[in-house]
Write a structure and sequence with these properties.
By secondary structure, the chain is of the alpha/beta class. It has a single domain, classed as Rossmann fold. Helices cover 31% and strands 22% of the residues. The protein has four helices and seven strands; from the N terminus they run βαβββαβαββα. The protein has a seven-stranded mixed β-sheet, sandwiched between helices. Helix 2 (65-82) runs parallel beside helix 3 (98-110). The protein is globular, with a radius of gyration of 15 Å. The mean pLDDT is 88. Bound molecules: guanosine-5'-diphosphate and magnesium ion. Magnesium ion is lined by residues 15-16, 58-59. The site of magnesium ion has 4 residues, from helix 1. It comes from Paenibacillus beijingensis.
Length: 163
């Protein structure tokens, strides 16, 4: 079976934007199975000659801080179960939040390979924003922009390199 890369992070950081850029039009149709939550999208991708499945977690928009925390936690745990590598996405514009730290804690305990993607680094002037996220403890964060499509090659180099 193909290795699985999962994109995890709190709502609105840009997970779906990056997922769509990576899969192009290779969205996978997944049958409803018991125990599989419907708010996850599956697609396929290929990079450096490696084919993989990729999961966009957290498809349903939720309101309220408690609900967001609960769902972010659940998505992180599901990603740990099914993924070989996890892309942990954060947002350079809003900076590090409590929900990010919560996700980091769950991922850290799992010992799965994690790549931190700092999205919304829309111009080079903002490249410094990436350094704040070193403190998450997963090594060098990679600055990307879903709006401009920049940094996605570097992100895939790092993620596929850990498969
Ligand atoms: P998700 O909830 O994590 O799946 O996030 P989405 O992909 O739905 O994106 C949330 C919002 O952020 C949308 O309004 C996107 O257009 C916006 N967005 C995504 N990527 C970027 C980016 O690189 N820069 C900026 N400025 N906005 C972005
Ligand atoms: Mg989404």
């Amino acid at each position: 079976a193909r290795p699985v890369i999962a994109i995890v992070g709190r709502p609105n950081v840009g997970k779906s934007t990056i997922f769509n850029r990576i899969i192009g039009d290779r969205l996978a149709i997944v049958e409803d199975k018991p125990g599989v939550t419907r708010d996850r999208l599956y697609g396929t991708g290929e990079w450096n000659g490696r084919a993989f499945n990729i999961v966009d977690t957290g498809g349903i928009e939720i309101e309220g801080e408690d609900e967001i925390m609960k769902s972010v936690r659940m998505q992180a745990e599901l990603a740990i179960e099914e993924a070989d590598v996890i892309i942990f996405m954060v947002d350079a514009k809003s900076g590090l939040t409590l929900a990010d730290e919560e996700v980091a804690h769950i991922l850290f305990r799992s010992h799965k390979p994690v790549v931190v993607a700092v999205n919304k680094v829309d111009n080079q002037g903002r490249a410094d924003d990436v350094y704040e996220f070193y403190g998450l403890g997963f090594g060098e964060p990679i600055g990307i922009s879903g709006s401009h499509g920049t940094g996605i090659g570097d992100l895939l180099d790092a993620a596929v390199g850990k498969l």
